[in-house]
């Protein structure tokens, strides 16, 4: 290929060539210059409206408040949470499946939502746990991840995104009892189905009130993708050390699926170095209401929720196109 722009690297030429092959994936949400002289390029990830994510948090808070104050495994609040998410996805054109299971003598559910299309042999998944602990409404843990994943899925529908890979979204039950729902899902997959899953992205606690910006460091490609997003926002990140094996990505990783995700911090205190680069309060937990009754809609940092929701979309678009 002859380059018309001097100084362009071979890698840039490859990227440009790849973009030429994906003109059908150019989304209406793409930003920047257009017109006859602009080169065609791959779909840009859309901005996720944080107001929409917050509206889902309010709905999940109302569901908890109407059902004894929580959305824990086996409760009416959990089932109502599943019904809320499923209703939105069904209306948006997803193919939804509810998987029922019993653990600790109570019935729980996973919700799986497939976006029709894409290569059935290459699946990208994004998921979050939907159950709270019984002490509270679980808005940061984990209505935040659930709402960010939901609004990303709804944005896939709104933009009628046509990814190369097949997209599958998941909301897990009984994470708080030991990753039960996600473990059941992975265990139930035939080996041939499991190997089609080329990546699993996990979102658990993405709006912590005294936030950190942690990126899981399990898979280099997925980690690089999230770091590239935060670099565009001039936000520095750290590898996640608090969470290893502590959320629903663990069963996927143990089954050989590449995993990644982001996390805004739980009960660990923010150091002064971290407060210097991220703002917030040194010596205070990232989430002082972790697993407490004060984990309500007041327990959310809007900037972290906005950035991390946009990071979900950035990774879903970037890793599926
Ligand atoms: N699994 C979370 C708590 C948690 C702690 N560390 C991390 C790191 C990454 C994600 C989540 C977490 C809970 O649900 O309690
Ligand atoms: Ca946004
Ligand atoms: Zn928890
Ligand atoms: Zn959690």
From TrEMBL:
Keywords, sorted A to Z: Hydrolase, Metal-binding, Protease, Signal, Zinc
Domain Peptidase M28: 110-315
Gene3D superfamilies: Zn peptidases
InterPro entries: M28_fam (IPR045175), M28_SGAP-like (IPR041756), Peptidase_M28 (IPR007484)
A UniProt-annotated Pfam family: Peptidase_M28
Signal sequence, start to end: 1-29
PANTHER family given in the database record: METALLOPEPTIDASE M28 FAMILY MEMBER (PTHR12147), PEPTIDASE M28 DOMAIN-CONTAINING PROTEIN (PTHR12147:SF26)
Recorded family membership: Belongs to the peptidase M28 family. M28A subfamily.
Protein name, UniProt field: M28 family peptidase
Organism the protein comes from: Streptomyces flavofungini
